[in-house]
Each structure stands twice: as C-alpha cells, then as structure tokens.
Design goal:
The chain is about 60% helix and about 0% strand. The chain is mainly alpha-helical and about 220 residues long. It has a domain at about 70-215. The chain has a two-stranded antiparallel ribbon with strand order 1-2.
Amino acid sequence: MPSLCYRCGAPVEQQVPFCRSCGAPQIRVAVAQEAAEVSNDPATLPLEPGTPASLQLPAIPVHFAAPAGIQWRKYVRIALPFALASGAGIAFFVPFGIVLLIITVVLSIRRYRRTTPSRFTAAHGARLGALTALLSFPSYLLLFGLILATGFESLHAVMLDLLRQRPIQSPEYQEMLRWASTREGFLSVTMIGVFTILIILLALATAAGALEGSRKEN
C-alpha cells in the first residue's frame, strides 16, 4: 500500500527510499530516548509501623578506656613529700627508712590510681615504684652527707672496729683492712655502701610498685 510523501504529499510506494516527485528521503530512523525519566520514588518502600523491621534499636553507649600512660608530674606531686621523708628515715636508720619507703610506694600509687582514670598495669606500678626510690634518694644523700661530715672520725672508727672483729687472717683481708684505715679507703667504702643502698631501694620499691599495680581496683 503506497504512502504519502511527508514533504510534497505525492504517493510513494513502500520500500522506496526517495520520493520520485521531490526526492525527499522516505526512510525514517526512530531516535531512542537518551535520558530516562528520573523517579522520585524511594528505593525501598517505607516499612509499616509496628513491624519488627521498623523498630529502631536503642543506642548503646560504648565507653573506651583512656590511653595507657603515666602522668609523671602528677605522681611526683603526690609522692614527693613522703619520699623525702622516707629518705630522711633511711639516713638515720636504714631498716625503718626502707619500711617507710615501701609504705610510701603503696599509698602513693593507690592515690594516683584513684585520681587518674586510665588503664594501670604492673609495669606502670614498677616504674612509679622506681621513681619513688629515686625521689627519696636525694634527702637520704643530703642527710647522710651531713652526718658523715660532722662525725667522720667516729664513723671511721666504728667501721674499723667492725672489720677488725671478723676472724679473717688472710693476706688479702689484712690488706683491705689497711686500705680501709686510710681516709681515701674509708670514703671509697662509704661510696660503695651508698651505691649499694640505692640498688636495694630501687629493687624493693620496684617490686612493691609492681605488686600494687597488679592489684585490681575494687
């Protein structure tokens, strides 16, 4: 069945590419719609109220522990007065001062933990215990130095009496006794004793701090 030319209106047979009257092309190409309509409908249908899927779970607060760390200045302010008192006690009577130092470590760490909300471990306690021993040492050294300066001769005589009371007749021991009888020898023995006391204080305070740090808070 012939159709009419869209330009001149002349009849055109089917499958004829051009109009014989005006030469207009008769094959039309349908252009596909490039842009699709955008729907404003939601991707998912709203849930009906009362269904299990529509119920929103309540927010659960999550508490994170504060980063582990030691507030050194804060602990020094807590422990320094008691540590200095412990050092003074060690200078006058070593066993009493050591007991006082251990009590200072325990009480200072407990007070620090109550006022510092952070994770605390035995390693933290050991560090604070060692710091407490170091804080106590200056007062011990100062007072012991004053005692040594004011009573040098008497202390030297006491040390020599203790060494002579030992029933050791070896040549090495007699040589050490003669060396300790000199002023230089006595000072050297005293410095060795002071260093030994420092090592003992560090060991005991570190152990006490570690034990206190491993204790769980109530």
